Amino acid sequence: MNAPQPREPRRPPSVWRTVRAVAWSLFGVRRGSEYQQDGERITPLHVIAVGLAAIFVLVLGLIALVKLVV
Questions:
Q1: pTM to 2 decimals?
Q2: Domain coverage including residue 43
Q3: Three-state SS across 12-63?
Q4: Is 9 part of any domain?
Q5: How many domains does one find in the chain?
Q6: Fewer CB near the last or first residue (10 Å), C or N of the chain?
Q7: 18 and 46 in contact (C-beta within 8 Å)?
Q8: What pLDDT does residue 66 have?
Q9: Can you give the pLDDT of all 70 residues of the chain as single tens digits?
Q10: pLDDT the model gives residue 8
Q11: Does a structural domain hold residue 3?
Q12: Helix 44-69 crosses helix 15-27 at what angle (to 10 degrees)?
């Protein structure tokens, strides 16, 4: 029989990893394996906070672009 494999120690959630996950999700592309790892390593609170910040920056960028063009 195969001996059970020791699990990788759980790493604390990283803000940088959350930022990457949110950025890739805004573009709509993500590898399945990385998506699975993100689900295990990042917390929903971080995703919500970074997502709101990213949308805020996106809206400000669009407003600035419109003011620049018009």
A1: 0.66
A2: 15-69
A3: CCCHHHHHHHHHHHHHCCCCHHHHHHHHHHCCHHHHHHHHHHHHHHHHHHHH
A4: no
A5: 1
A6: N
A7: yes
A8: 97
A9: 566 666 666 667 778 888 888 888 777 777 777 777 777 788 889 889 999 999 999 999 999 999 999 9
A10: 60
A11: no
A12: 50
Confirm whether 2 is domain-assigned.
no
28 backbone φψ class: left, alpha, beta (φ>0; ψ -120 to 50): left
Rounded Cα distance, 70 and 54, in Å: 24
| The token pair that represents 14 in the structure block | 């990283």
Give, rounded to a whole angstrom, the gap between the first and last alpha carbons of the chain: 71
Question: What Rg value do the Cα atoms of the chain yield, rounded?
Answer: 17
Query: Is 34 part of any domain?
Result: yes
Query: How many C-beta neighbours within 10 Å does residue 22 have?
Result: 21
